Structure formats: structure tokens, C-alpha cells
Amino acid sequence: MTGTGSVSIDSVIVVGASLAGWRAVETFRAEGFAGAITLVGEELHLPYDRPPLSKQVLAGTWPPEKAVLADKKRSSALRVHEVLGHRAVRLDVEGRQVEIDDGSLLRGDAIVLATGASPRRLPGTESLGQADGLFTLRTLDDSLALRASLTAVDAARVVVVGAGFIGAEVASTCAGLGCRVTVLEAMEIPLVNVLGPMIGAHCGSLHEANGVELRCGVGVAGIRRANASPAGLEVELANGDVLQADVVVVGIGVVPATEWLTTSGLTVDNGVVCDDRLFAAEGIVAAGDMARWMWRHDSSEEQIRIEHWELAAEAGVAAARSVLAGRADAPSFTPIPYFWSDQYGIRFQVLGNPGGNDEVKIVEGSLEEGKFMALFGRAGRLRAAMTIGKPRQLMGMRPLLEAGSSWDDALAASG
Angle 165-176/192-209 helices, nearest 10 degrees? Predict the structure, then answer.
């Protein structure tokens, strides 16, 4: 089966029943590929959306099925061979073979790697699990189990470890369910490494404004089962304080799910290292949270890995098109990253790739109003824009980001 370029392929394996993986599947068919597509997924579920897991599904305002990206009917229509409930354990790059956990081998002319990422765990908590009240939130089953625990106790005591976007969303949802919530953050200011101290402090202030206790600059020394009744957990802080909790949610980031690729020969360094076309090797591409690709922009380039819904979706499409075009003819993947976060009835939207050390200037509105647009500059260039309550203004910055606008020109254009 010939792709859009000079590459001839008859079969594709997509490893990872994720957003990126599913968008790749859809794109292969949309681009006219008529060969065999095998989708491998560790979970028994077909692909679903993850953003609602910390919000609508956890809150109970959406039934789980509303989060699905693909049902059996859609999968059948796209002629997908499903291998679900099985984990990929080894990749043979030369032979284009994927070994799964039951020992069977799958072979394809091309392989899309989209196994995503796994939540970080706190050291010393290996003996604790959901039955004890300790959670991470990554899968649909995690969200449903967490909701069951939160609603099993009136005004449940919840400790959220980590005030990043996921931690903040979980805290917001738990507060909305009537829980008594404390958020612990190791840094002195939440999100300071992404949004800088001024915007990070504003994000942190939303917790207290909504009845959630935020404690910054505190480390967690350990989590253990409570000895006293009622049953629950004790969170010991580095300063010696002990917090009682019915539920503890750990949201301290994720790591790329690449452990199964250690013997593959691919370059794995904070993700699968890819070129600007998402190729990790001939005939093998990567997309989504596990991919670290060469992003070319502003006449420069950098290896970058971004954990955003929008980017995963775009990368899945681009990865499939790269396979069909072939490495020599595939275009560079040069998106403008976009992400959003919903907390306490407020939507944060970010366009570009901000960093904690960027120059930040509020060009519309104000922190006091709670509606504003902030621009982020680095090395004399516009790097990102962030808004609360100003979506139209945010999208107006896209052409400037695409054009590699200078910082001065961006400030002038927004004035």
C-alpha cells in the first residue's frame, strides 16, 4: 500500500491507545491508507479524553462514556485490530516488531509510539494504594475510584500534593464536592517554573479565595496509614507537621512511559528523541507525552517535550502523515503549543511555550480584575501569551508567535 510519498507500507502498529495514538489511526484512514492498523493499549478501554478526568468525570457531571474518543462502532468502521489490556514490553527496531506482555510478537511496516506518560509517585509510598486512600490521577479508572473515595465520606479531608495544573484542578473539583482540601507545594510559589512568580502567585491565590488551604515551600517526609480511628492516612511534612486525610492525591508530574524501549536502540532521554518530522528511526515515529522532538522556530531549534492535549492531538496527526510521506518528504512539525486549565470556574489559556525565567508583562486587564492577558518574552522574542477571561485576545497573538515576532513588536501590537 503506497503512502502519499514514495514509501510503500501495508501495515501499521500504533502502540498506545492514547489521544495521540487515536488521532494517528484516524489520520491514516483519512489520508487513504487501506492497510492493516493494529492498536495496542495497556488499558481495556478504547481511547478517551484525559482532561475531563480531573474535572467533569471526577465531579460526576459527566458519565465516563462522555469522555471516550472512540467506541467499538468507530473502531470497527476504521478497521482497527484492537490489542487492548496488553502492555508493550519490547521493540525490535530493525525487525519492526513489538513484543507484548503475553509473549506474542506484532510486526508492522511502520510503528507509531504513543504510550504517553506515567504519574510520579512519592518515594516511600510503594506499599500504599487506592484501597488506603492514596491516589494518582492518570486513567479513567483512577478518576472513578477517586470519586468513589471522595463521596464515601461526608466532607472528606483531602490532601493534594502538588499545586501544578493537575493538582489545582483536582483541588478545585474536590472543593466543589464539599471536601476539606489542603494543597501542598514544595516550591515557594505555585507554577513559578512555568508562569513566573507574578502569575504563579495569582494562581496560588485562587485556592485560598475558594476555601482551599495552600501551603507552599513544604516538602512531604512521608505518608502512612493512620493508627487512630477513623481509618485514613497521615501526611508527615518535612517540618514535622502531620496532616490527617481521608484521601491523598499525588500530582507531582509525570515521566514518559519509555521503560519498555530501553533495549530498542532508540535514543531515550526524557522521552523518545525524534527529529523535526517525529521520526525516531526509519519507519518509526513518536507522538504525545512520550515524544521529545526537534522543534524548529524563530530560526532556532531545540529538543522539546510538551504534555498538552492539543499538542498530543496535533502530533498524532503529524506522525501518521510523516509515516505516509516517508522521512525524506515529511514536513517539519512546527506547532504553536496551546493548553488550558479549568480551576474554580476560571479558565486559564496559554499559547506558546512560557518559562519561569521569561520576562512577563500584563498588557490587558489586571490581576486585581481577575481578567488579563500576559505576554512572555525571552531572548528578545515573544514566547507565549496567557489569558484569563480574554480568549479572543489570546488567539490574536497566534500570528505573532507564528511569525517569530520580536518582544518589542509584540508589546507594541498589544498596546
Answer: 10
